[in-house]
Design brief:
This protein is of the alpha/beta class. The chain contains 8 helices and 20 strands. It has 4 domains: 50 residues; 108 residues, Sandwich (Immunoglobulin-like); 41 residues, no CATH class; 177 residues, Rossmann fold (3-Layer(aba) Sandwich), CATH 3.40.50.410.
Length: 410
């Protein structure tokens, strides 16, 4: 709605018709017709004067229930509109503005006639993209009783903020931990008091080097124990979210990018609830890092960071793992990606060199209708990762995150 006061199409037509009639009457000397023409000219001008003198005073309060929603869901917007101008006679047309991702807002009409009034109007907004969106301002339009002129203005009141977060799925913990969020080592035992005997040991596992067996502790525990030659890793996980625009398929909440963001946020929520330290990396840089033991506070900060996460124009997934310090203490590595090529797979394989748990969730190319020329390269990248010890699961179009994660836990 345009702001300002102007004539409507009806008012302009009446003004022109009156001018033509007055000119014709003056030319032929018809006084009565001349007065009619002048009256027709005067009516639109009086309508403009009415709108200038009788200024509307409309205020509003807006509530969003809820004010934070996951992408792909909706919220209820209720507007409490109040008119404080007793001379307001014509109907008021409103448009509550909003971003195109929220449907562009809503339009409605309130026709109450003279006198002050209050009225509530509600509508539903559905969010198709993550982010923070402003709902408002409330644009209004009024006119004179004859509809010859109209005035656009902004109703008094505050705009509202709607936060659209990734969808957080409830996931099951990996069986036995599988190294996710922990060092993958059993809780070690410290023996001795000082010096060279102050070492760490744990139970023997299949594949442990026999040279690491600590015979003194084995005899004491009556169970085969092995020496930890270095301090165990700090319980931590690194999550990689592929935000490369060119690697993903589909758009909006049904696209593979939002699937990847939702999956990483869900895994991060699982780890945060377990009070583990975690880091989230993307090709554009570090997205989030938490301290160990921050629990629910860490989870909320993570959701904030993932809500504001933007797509990247980077072409190489390896940009996310170029910094070795980001991965040095990670006991587990979880990557949720778009389509991969050989260089992406090589970067992930190199990044997972020290981690005990390596999990990758990748798109099922045919299901996502990926271009045919990308199928072979993507499949080869997946085979390469599996050959380097990665547990790779493919997610199909429309498949919920918990269903894919369930295959990982099995």
């Amino acid at each position: 709605m345009r702001r300002g006061t102007r004539l409507t199409g009806r008012g302009i037509a009446l003004l022109l018709f009156g001018a033509v009639a007055a000119a014709g009457a003056a030319y032929i000397g018809e006084t009565d017709l001349l007065w009619i023409g002048l009256a027709l000219i005067l009516l639109p001008l009086l309508a403009l004067a009415y709108l200038f003198l009788v200024r509307p005073f409309v205020s509003h309060e807006r509530t969003l229930t809820p004010s934070t929603i996951p992408v792909g869901t909706s919220t209820r917007v209720v507007l409490h509109v109040a008119n404080e101008s007793p001379a307001q006679a014509a109907a008021l047309r409103f448009h509550d503005t909003a971003d195109g991702s929220l449907g562009g807002g809503a339009s409605f009409v309130i026709a109450r006639g003279f006198g002050a009034w209050h009225q509530s109007v509600g509508y539903t907004v559905e969010a198709s993209r993550r982010g923070r969106y402003t709902v408002g301002p409330l644009q209004a339009q009024t006119g004179d009783p004859l509809g010859l002129a109209q005035r656009g203005f902004t109703a008094k009141g505050r705009n509202s903020m709607l936060r659209v977060t990734p969808r957080i799925w409830r996931l099951e913990e990996l069986a036995g931990g599988a190294g996710l969020g922990s060092a993958g080592e059993a809780t070690p035992q410290r023996i001795g008091q000082a010096g060279a005997d102050d070492v760490l040991v744990r139970e023997h596992r299949h594949g442990d080097d026999i040279r690491r067996v600590h015979w003194k502790m084995t005899a004491k525990k009556d169970d085969l124990m092995v020496r930890l030659e270095e301090h165990p890793w700090d319980p931590s996980s690194t999550l990689i979210v592929d935000t490369r625009r060119g690697a993903h398929l589909g758009d909006g909440p049904d696209g593979s990018l939002e699937w990847a963001v939702s999956a990483v946020a869900s895994v991060a929520a699982l780890l945060s609830e377990g009070r583990h330290r975690l880091a989230i990396l993307a090709p554009s840089g570090r997205v989030f890092e938490s301290a160990r033991g921050s629990g629910e506070a860490s989870k909320q900060l993570m959701i904030e960071a993932m809500t504001d996460l933007q797509t990247s124009e980077e072409a190489w997934l390896g940009s996310a793992v170029e910094d070795p310090e980001s991965l040095s203490s990670a006991a587990s590595l979880v990557a949720v990606t778009g389509l991969l090529d050989s260089s992406d797979a090589a970067a992930l394989a190199a990044a997972g060199g020290r981690a005990r748990s390596l999990i990758a969730l990748v798109p099922d190319a045919p299901s996502w209708r990926a271009p045919a020329d990308t199928h072979d390269e993507h499949a080869e990248a997946v085979r390469f990762l599996r050959g380097r010890g990665w547990h790779v699961e493919a997610y199909r179009r429309g498949e919920p995150v918990p269903k894919v994660w369930e295959r990982v836990t099995r």
